[in-house]
Amino acid sequence: MIQIPYTCQLFEEDEQFVALCPELTVSSFGDTPETALRALQEVVSIFLEECQQMGTLEVVLEEAGYYRELLTQKWVLRQPIQINRLEASFA
After folding, report:
1. How many Cβ atoms sit within 10 Å of the Cβ of residue 12?
2. Is 90 exposed, middle or buried (0-12, 13-18, 19+ CB in 10 A)?
3. Which conformational region is residue 6 in: left (phi greater than 0), alpha (psi within -120 to 50 degrees), or beta?
4. Could you tell me if residue 86 is inside a domain?
5. Which residues, 6+ apart, have CB-to-CB distance to 30 below 8 Å?
6. Predicted pLDDT of residue 61
7. Does the pLDDT of residue 2 top 90, yes or no?
8. What residues make up the domain containing 55?
9. Does residue 84 belong to any structural domain of this protein?
10. Is residue 91 part of a domain?
């Protein structure tokens, strides 16, 4: 069994909750945070299974910022050393 760690960000939009996996650019929604999270888990699993069946899983994960640990061969998500919120100014 392959295990892929991923991030879930929850947002409230128009009386719905949106769950987003930014690494894989996959999202889902629900009436509650819990249902949105469960829906995202299902969609991510389906997405990754389809990538595996198509033979593109490794490429998709590498493009999303994952790498394989040398000793364990587990997929690991790269971690930022710093996160900043910035603003862009333009005319």
Report:
1. 10
2. exposed
3. beta
4. no
5. 16, 17, 19, 36, 37, 38, 39
6. 97
7. no
8. 9-77
9. no
10. no
